[in-house]
Amino acid sequence: MSEADTSEALYPASVEEFRQQISAFRLRTLNRVAATAPQDDLIRLLGYESADQSDEESGVDKSDEVADEPEHVDESGREPDRKGKVFLHISLAMQPTVFGVRAGLRVEQAAHMVAADCAIEYAWKTLVAYERSAFREFLNVEVVPRLMTYAWTILDELAHSLGVGVQTFPAQIREDDVVEFIMKSFNPHSTSTPS
């Protein structure tokens, strides 16, 4: 943001002040995939790293293997297989006139893989400058709950198309962690999307 833009920009100091500046808002599904085993070829085709290479995946990797949790029993009397990995990749775009977060969320299990790339986008009524603590509060209260509820709803639909439900997934990613992932890319003076 140039010095001229900064002098004209509004610095929202609370969630309510951010909300008052929203002129347009939308949630988007950019990609959605459901697959059964074997998945290796599909994972390569989509450009994902395999679960074995999760440490190398770009962006944020939130792998979670669930162990020793009480298991739920489905209608057939079988306990679901909750072992698997959850991957999250976050991209952030901040401009004086718009703001957006894209979340690529993928769950891999031995027999199933579901993935969704979802985005939340805001257009502002006036030029907006981002102050770190107010922006974090806006993420906590407004942005991340909407985005993650939307993404997990898409994953739930995909899981049901495979005959499984989200209760068979590994533990979900905490919203506080997603906020922290986004804040790692926070640069209030950036005029381009952080890499």
Descriptive overview:
- By secondary structure, the protein is an alpha+beta fold.
- It has a single domain, classed as Bacterial Protein-export protein SecB, CATH 3.10.420.
- 30% of the residues lie in helices and 25% in strands.
- A four-stranded antiparallel beta sheet has the order 1-4-3-2.
- α4 crosses α5.
- The longest helix has 30 residues.
- It starts with a helix and ends in an 11-residue tail after the last helix.
- The C terminus is likely disordered.
Question: What's the layout of helices and strands?
Answer:
Layout: H1 3-8, H2 15-20, E1 22-36, H3 40-45, E2 85-94, E3 98-108, E4 112-124, H4 132-161, H5 175-184
Antiparallel strand pairs: 1-4, 2-3, 3-4
Helix pairs in contact: 4-5
What is the structure about, briefly put?
The protein is α+β, with helices and mostly antiparallel strands and 195 residues long. It has helices spanning 3-8, 15-20, 40-45, 132-161, 175-184, and strands at 22-36, 85-94, 98-108, 112-124. The chain has one domain: SecB-like (Bacterial Protein-export protein SecB), CATH 3.10.420.
Characteristic key phrases:
30% helix; 5 helices; alpha+beta; disordered C terminus; four-stranded antiparallel sheet; 195 residues; 4 strands; Bacterial Protein-export protein SecB
What name goes with the CATH superfamily? SecB-like
Give the strand order, joined by hyphens, for the main sheet: 1-4-3-2
CATH architecture: Roll
C-alpha termini separation: 17 Å
Nearest-integer average pLDDT: 79
The helix content, as a percent range, equals 25-40%
Low-confidence spans: pLDDT under 50, at least 5 residues?
Answer: 55-80, 191-195
SSE string:
HHEHEEEHH
What is the C-alpha radius of gyration, as a whole number of Å? 19 Å
**β-strand amount:** 25-35%
Q: How many DSSP helices?
A: 5
Give the domain tally. 1
- Could you give a short account of the major beta sheet? 4 strands, antiparallel
Overall form? elongated
Look at the helices and sheets and give the structural class.
Answer: alpha+beta
**Which fold name fills CATH's third level, the topology?**
Bacterial Protein-export protein SecB
Give the beta-strand count: 4
Biased composition (Basic and acidic residues): 59-80
Region (Disordered): 51-80
